[in-house]
Write a structure and sequence with these properties.
Length: about 270
């Protein structure tokens, strides 16, 4: 891909995407530029780590880019766009990885008819295993979606969804890694309290997660079917699942996703 990509914002999501793109070697490193509001130490560190360019001059970053990736905090977006909007043009592709902010809101902020794509990757992008959802704004065509898809497929899998579903996507795959890490923390603690070495426990748990994920992807079976195959009547798995059911595990997880979705909506309203 012979494009120059500018990241406006240098937080954890921006770094995850940069890391994945650099490892995939889809772009020349000198064509990846990052800037942020004021933390020069942060963008200098990204420059050293990934051998990309860090520039404090937001105007130059925006004017020279073919693709502008907005990666600020939701409440910093308006100020960030205001500082670069006169340097943006309709031939650029604008991609937002910001939770909660609609493509219409971004179009209103930039003040022109540039194509806007909304993307929701997750931090597994840094190792090429992101689950990224994409949706197109009103001025974005199929060619823009394909361009965004080609970029994000270098850091994992992509799906295209209606923008109305993006709040739910945020609650599932955007925030999902944190839920799984939280689950691992609990399993690890139980293992150690039962006498298992922490390193051994983590190795077993992480591989179990990887294996279960691959089974879901490759087997063509539902999660329910796979769970039932593992669960022998009166066996160890059933005993464990009964403990989860007693704690209303499914309802808790459903509420977790609903609250994350709700927060995504609130962030959009507070923009």
């Amino acid at each position: 891909m012979d494009k120059k990509v500018a990241f406006i914002g240098a937080g954890s999501m921006a770094e995850a995407v940069i890391s994945g793109i650099v490892q995939a070697e889809i772009l020349q490193k000198e064509k990846i530029v990052v800037t942020n509001r004021s933390n020069k130490e942060r963008i200098d560190r990204l420059e050293r780590r990934y051998d990309i360019q860090s520039i404090q001059d937001k105007e130059k970053v925006a004017a020279d880019a073919d693709i502008v990736i907005l990666a600020t905090k939701p409440y910093d977006l308006a100020a960030a766009v205001e500082s670069i909007k006169e340097y943006l043009n309709q031939n650029q592709l604008i991609i937002s990885v910001i939770a909660g902010i609609s493509t219409d809101d971004i179009t209103a902020l930039i003040g022109n008819n540039a194509p806007v794509i909304r993307a929701m990757p997750n931090t597994s992008a840094s190792i090429g295993f992101s689950a990224t959802a994409l949706s197109a704004g009103k001025f974005a065509g199929d060619e823009h979606l394909l361009e965004a898809k080609a970029l994000f497929e270098t850091i994992g899998t992509t799906v295209i969804v209606d923008e109305a579903d993006m709040h739910t996507v945020t609650g599932i795959s955007g925030s999902g890694p944190a839920y799984l890490y939280y689950f691992v923390e609990a399993m690890e603690k139980a293992a150690v309290e039962s006498g298992l070495n922490k390193t051994t426990a983590l190795e077993l748990i992480s591989q179990t997660l990887v294996g279960a994920g691959e089974m879901l992807k490759q087997s063509g079976e539902t999660a329910t079917s796979l769970r039932e195959k593992v669960t022998s009547p009166g066996g160890t798995t059933q005993a464990g699942l009964e403990a989860l059911a007693a704690g209303d595990f499914q309802k808790t997880v459903q509420e977790c996703v609903k609250q994350a979705r709700k927060r995504s909506i609130e962030l959009g309203e507070k923009k």
